[in-house]
Each structure stands twice: as C-alpha cells, then as structure tokens.
C-alpha cells in the first residue's frame, strides 16, 4: 500500500467518500424546486443537506455524535424525504438512498444495519401507498439496502485495516524497544564481569609489581587475554550470537574470584543441560560472581548446582558483609532472564554474606508458553 494511502487509512477516510452523493442525489429535487420556484421545497432540500452533513462531517474530526443525536438527524431526514416524495413526486425518490448512506456513516454502531433496513422498508411503503407503484418502491428499497450496506462495510473495512496498521506499527516499536533492552542487558552482563576482573587484576599488578615482577607480568598477560576475550564478546553480542555456558562461566568465575583473593568452592555441573537453561545459568554465575568480587569483601564464595524433580537449582553465596537486597541493572537483567524461562530468583542479603538462589525447569519452558 502506498505510504500516502496507508496514512489516509490509518487516520480514517473522513466524510469525503460519501460527500459527492449529496450533490448527485439532490440534483433532481433541486432542479424541480427551482423549476417550480418553490421556496418550501428548497427549504426541505436544505434541511436534508444539513442533516446529512451533520451526520457525516464528524468523521473528519475526533468528535463522535451521540447516538440519540444521530438517530434524531436520521429521523429528520426520513421525515423530510418522505414528505418530499408524497408532495413533490418521484424527483425525491432517490433521496431515500441518501438517507441510507448517511445512516451507515453517521451511526457507526451495530444499530446502523438495522436502520438501513428500516429506511429501505419505509421508502418502499411510502412510495407504494402513495402511488401504488410497488415495483418502483421495491427498486428504491433495494437501492437503499445496497448503498447503505456497501457504505457501512466500506467504512468498517477501512477502520479494521487502519486498526491493524496501527497495531503493526505499535508491535514494531515494541520489538525495537525490547531489542534495545536485550542489547543493553547483554552488554552490561558481558562488560560488567570482564571489567571487574580487569580491575581486580590491575590492582594485583599494582600491589606486586615491585616485589614480584614475574607474577605482575603474568597478571598483565591475563589482563591482555581478558581484554581480547571481551572484545570478541562485544562483537558477538552486537551480532546477537553471544552464547555462554554454565561450565565456561564457572571456569571464568574461578579465575576472577581467585584473582580477588576469594577462595572459590564449586560443586559439580550437571551434563546435557537444555541450551537455554545452560545459557541462563551461565549468565547467573557471571553476574553473581561479579557482584561478589565487587562488593562482598568475602573470603569464600560457594557455587552449587543441583537437579531434583524436574528443576535445576543454582546457589551462589559468600561469607562477606552482605548488604541491601536492592537490585541494580545486572540483577534486574537476571530477574528478566529467569522469568522468561519460567523460573524463580531469590536474594538474601542478610549479613553475614549474600545468597542468590535460582530455580529453573530442566526442560525449556518459556514463561509465555
């Protein structure tokens, strides 16, 4: 769909598709009134035109006619057209179709189809009883039904397409927002841990550089390797291909904890974990041990993984100072990851120490499944 047409549909077509019918269907009664010089007939035509415009013009604005007002305008039109058909003859018959069109557009509710049927029926009865020409009344009635129904469904279809288009645009915006959140969370998880390890090793280099140059050089080599690894991780994260496993993150956690002077105590890791479960638990170990290195002041950090009754449980705890359980960006990102996997995350920051517990179903089970 061309952009200009798509924008027109999203905003709504307004009254313009039906306004030409006002001119077309009033040509005959206007000509008759002018030919007879009848001011009364011209006034009746003007009344029909005003009622029609009053019904369809709000389509171009944010205003909506209340149902009693709209029904009153349709009734006024029907009364004027019925009077015109009886008093001034067949030049007014086609104007019944105009009333049906205005009802289809102006009511814009479930009552509109019913009113179209009523208008078609009344037009046939009026013409039939007035002239006895029931065939003519039937033709006008059918025209009312066809024109009114077509107009009603035309506007209904455009409204549905516009709503779908707006929903599609909102979904696209939501997808972009979600991707931004995912990227910021992944970037924090990747760089937060890596930079913490670099800071710890840099402090170690500064402390031992004079008394043990060989050890300082070894730490400097580790910093170089970690920096290269971080660069690769960032590239993978930007590309959306970052994959980390529980086993890999536990190895990295051992290095980071040991470099910070914290003794790691790590239990066995279950084999053949579901890919998403393995990935999520890896992120948990990364973020939790990063917080231990940064904030705990602990001497020991324990990481344990157990599996029971179809659920896997990961516990990371230290013997440090504890603190507030308030979550930062990292822990908030973990909470989101765990919830996406239909899991639970518990934090106990009561001194001594800090304890984080995550439980996930062993099999992949998305929260929105």
From TrEMBL:
A single MF term (Gene Ontology): protein dimerization activity
InterPro entries membership: HATPase_C_sf, HATPase_dom, Sensor_HK_TwoCompSys, Sig_transdc_His_kin_sub3_dim/P
Keywords: Kinase, Membrane, Transferase, Transmembrane, Transmembrane helix, Two-component regulatory system
Coiled coil: none
Top-level taxon: Bacteria
Domain Histidine kinase/HSP90-like ATPase: 280-363
TM helices/strands, residue ranges: 43-61, 68-88, 94-122, 134-158
Gene3D superfamilies: 1.20.5.1930, Histidine kinase-like ATPase, C-terminal domain
Pfam family, one: HisKA_3
GO cellular component: membrane
Location of the Signal transduction histidine kinase subgroup 3 dimerisation and phosphoacceptor domain: 179-245
Name of the protein this chain belongs to: Uncharacterized protein
Species of provenance: Luteipulveratus halotolerans
């Amino acid at each position: 769909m061309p952009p200009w047409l798509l924008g027109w549909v999203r905003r709504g077509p307004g009254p313009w598709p039906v306004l030409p019918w006002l001119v077309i269907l009033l040509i005959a009664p206007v000509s008759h009134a002018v030919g007879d010089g009848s001011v009364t007939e011209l006034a009746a035509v003007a009344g029909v035109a005003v009622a029609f415009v009053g019904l369809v013009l709000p389509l171009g604005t944010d205003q909506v006619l209340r149902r009693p007002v709209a029904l009153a305008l349709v009734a006024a039109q029907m009364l004027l057209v019925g009077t015109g058909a009886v008093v001034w003859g067949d030049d007014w018959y086609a104007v019944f179709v105009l009333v049906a069109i205005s009802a289809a557009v102006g009511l814009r509710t479930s009552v509109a189809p019913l009113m179209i049927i009523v208008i078609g029926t009344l037009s046939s009865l009026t013409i039939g009883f007035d002239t006895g020409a029931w065939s003519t009344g039937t033709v006008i009635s059918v025209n009312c039904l066809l024109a009114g129904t077509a107009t009603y469904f035309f506007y209904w279809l455009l409204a549905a397409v516009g709503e779908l288009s707006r929903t599609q645009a909102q979904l696209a915006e939501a997808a972009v927002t979600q991707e931004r959140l995912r990227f910021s969370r992944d970037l924090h998880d990747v760089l937060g841990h890596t930079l913490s390890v670099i800071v710890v090793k840099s402090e170690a280099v500064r402390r031992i550089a004079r008394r043990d140059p060989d050890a300082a050089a070894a730490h400097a080599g580790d910093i170089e390797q970690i920096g290269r690894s971080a660069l690769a991780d960032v590239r993978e994260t930007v590309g959306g291909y970052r994959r980390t496993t529980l086993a890999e993150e536990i190895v990295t956690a051992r290095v980071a904890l040991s470099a910070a002077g914290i003794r790691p105590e790590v239990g066995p890791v279950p084999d053949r974990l579901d890919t998403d479960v393995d990935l999520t638990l890896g992120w948990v170990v990364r973020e939790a041990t990063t917080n231990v290195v940064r904030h705990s002041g602990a001497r020991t950090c324990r990481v344990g993984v157990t599996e029971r009754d179809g659920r896997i449980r990961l516990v990371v705890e230290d013997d440090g100072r504890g603190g507030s359980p308030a979550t930062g960006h990292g822990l908030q990102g973990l909470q989101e990851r765990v919830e996406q996997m239909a899991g639970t995350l518990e934090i106990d920051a009561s001194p001594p120490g800090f304890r984080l517990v995550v439980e996930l179903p062993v099999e992949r089970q998305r929260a929105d499944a």
